[in-house]
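Hello,

Our lab assistant flagged a job as stuck in the queue for most of the afternoon. It eventually completed. Since we weren't sure the result was trustworthy after the delay, we are filing this so someone can double-check. Below is the sequence as submitted and the structure that was eventually returned. Let us know if re-running is recommended.
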Amino acid sequence: MSNNTKNPKISLIQALIPIIVLVALLFYNVKFVYGDDALSGSNQFILLLGAAVAGLVGFFNKVSYKKMLNSISDNIKATSGAILILLFVGALTGTWLISGIIPAMIYYGLQILNPSIFLPASVIICAIISIASGSSWTTTATVGVALIGIGTTLGISPAMTAGAVVSGAYFGDKMSPLSDTTNLAPAIAGAELFSHIKYMSFTTVPTFIVTLIVFIIISFTLDVSAPTNVDDILAAIKLSFHITPWLFLVPLAVIILIVKKIPPVVAMLVGTLLGALFAIIFQIGVIQELSGNTSPAFNDYYKVIMDAITISTSVTTENTTLVDLFSAKGMAGMLGTIWLIICALVFGGVMEAIGALAKISKALLSLADSVFGLFASTVASCLAINLTASDQYLAIVVPGKMFAKAYEDKGLAPENLSRTLEDSGTVTSALVPWNTCGAYQSGVLGVSVADYFIYAVFNYVSPFMSLLFAAFHIKIKQLKAQ
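-- returned structure --
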């Protein structure tokens, strides 16, 4: 995020011009031309056009090109860790395929997860893993990918599974004391971490229950009979890979590293290397097939592993259901998502530099006459910044700084602000295709945001639950008298 604290005198109309242009262009691009394929490149350029419009507004208000460029640079620098994680997710997926880890997850999952309970079970599994790891990203990149595969073989829509995965992962991310956003929100609002988690649970737990109920109802509407070819699928997996529970040591090691607060990039690197090692130990048949050599030499092992990490790999199977599941695109497969994130950060950086984000937040703050109005303005500000700045951290930091004094003036404890920042800033980031989180989840799970949006129940119910509690003055903590 930008270090520039002095904003130019920009009008609200001028601040909204780039947003109006961006939304109009994106709508046309997706609705009338590219459809779901818009994220393959055209939307990225639309974001740059939006940044250009914001730049023109900035020049009109005498904002220097250098200031805008510095703001863009600060945004990209702040997100460099996320970009590295994305690259390692691609690498990890590749080695976890050829080592048999992902196929093993699918193999055992098909035998444990009955179609009638699959969706709510997926929500719970991802919630538990995310609480333990403190990372929605790690959860979706590991367990989430496997659940997409299991769901597909059970005949369940990948969009439904992705919605369940994202819902569970973000519940755990919010409630875990290991989560970066869970630490950031109270730090910005001036609240204590565990007090923040306590007050956040009042809105988050009911939202999680609503999410589970929705997925249970959805499960009743599905054809819950297991696919007749499940035995064929299990046989095909065992034919292509050596399946053993020992393979689960690798994802377990990654989760332990995250819980121990090892940086995610390091944990992903270790997971990638362990995946490569387990491929050599357990999947000699896969190495032989991919190298085309029945007696592979060192160079053959090296090339197979490097291809899986960097470009693409595909293990042959006669079962058509498993063709896509036995393929991985490596680090190269993440480049489209990274491209989208960088272009979104360019737009957000320029909008921040010209003072547009601060102006929009101030305008929303001016509407906050009542307590409910203050909560509603906070939610709207977080949503607006997730849409415009394309980064969940900015959606927490900017409104947090803007609204902290207003909450204090109304006698409200900072836990109210920190909870609302998480209820609206953290979780809705995964619902915006060009936001870093939306782009990440879509890229990792292989399901577009537009497809999983309606099933990401937890993510879009959360801000409404926050407003419901504010409207009826439920669990609204007051400042203690000095």
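-- support follow-up --
The delay was a queue issue, not a problem with the job. The result is valid. Strands lie at 313-314, 327-328. The mean pLDDT is 86.
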